[in-house]
Design brief:
Layout (H helix, E strand, L loop, with lengths): L1 H9 L6 H20 L14 H5 L2 H29 L4 H38 L1 H25 L1 H18 L4 H24 L6 H23 L4 H5 L3 H7 L1
């Protein structure tokens, strides 16, 4: 590995080995946190919200929000980490992928803030007694509905757009094997189908259709993560980047 890195440096082409490892780790963390965020509360919240129970689980609510913040940061970090590499081949798509995943991160945070708002509403309702619990029910259900739409629908659209852009570049440039980036393109299309379906049916979360159509992208991201950590980007593909761009990157 040291010899390959030395050859890459001598040729004037960066190997981006550290970037590949970092992006691979971010893929794993992003997938893990997006799934594990439901664990502290024992599953997704459903309407009508049990405000009395939620108010007594403040530690778990805050932990869930923190996990979701990590989800947002790692998701955006993937596109930001890939940016200096894929911009060598297509700057417009590289920038678009960053924008897409940053928008995704914003809506993940919006959903997390909605959860924290629910905690405050529930605690204030409990203090006010039975009358407070009753009057807060409508507000809590509205906040929960906004959170469900944010995480179950809105988040997935910019994610799919951003991911599709960097998979197109990865496929065209051969920075990773084409079977791997091609798998990503197909999986993203399947995710978009499930997202549109969820929007019309309002069946968010781990419904049968969503789970079946989202499994391919989950598996693909883990396979890509392992490949990037173990192998990195293809050095021949990096060396084939446009000379003007290569000189700037070097």
């Amino acid at each position: 590995m040291r010899t390959e890195r030395k050859q890459a440096e001598e040729s004037g082409t960066p190997s981006y080995r550290g970037t590949a490892i970092a992006v691979g780790v971010l893929f794993i963390l992003c997938s893990a946190t997006s799934i594990l965020s439901i664990v502290p509360l024992g599953g997704p919240l459903v309407a009508p919200v049990d405000l009395a129970k939620l108010a007594t689980n403040d530690t778990r609510v805050v932990l869930t929000a923190l996990i979701e913040f990590v989800w947002a940061l790692t998701g955006a970090g993937i596109a930001i980490g890939l940016y200096p590499v894929i911009k060598r081949f297509n700057p417009a798509l590289a920038l678009g992928s960053v924008a897409g995943r940053l928008v995704e991160a914003v809506f993940v945070v919006v959903g997390a803030l909605g959860l924290l708002a629910l905690l405050t509403v529930s605690q204030e309702a409990v203090v006010a007694g039975s009358a407070g619990l009753s009057s807060a029910m409508t507000t809590s259900n509205l906040v929960l509905a906004a959170r469900e739409w944010a995480h179950g629908f809105v988040v997935l659209i910019p994610f799919a757009v951003g991911a599709f852009m960097y998979y197109v570049v990865l496929y065209r440039s051969r920075l990773v094997p084409r079977w791997l980036s091609g798998w990503g393109l197909v999986a993203i299309v399947m995710l978009m189908v499930s997202t549109i379906y969820a929007g019309f049916t309002q069946e968010f979360g781990f419904s049968t259709v969503n789970t079946v159509l989202n499994i391919p992208i989950g598996l693909q991201e883990m396979a890509l993560a392992v490949y990037l950590i173990a192998k990195g980007f293809d050095r021949k593909a990096l060396a084939s980047a446009a000379p003007a761009v290569t000189e700037t990157a070097a």
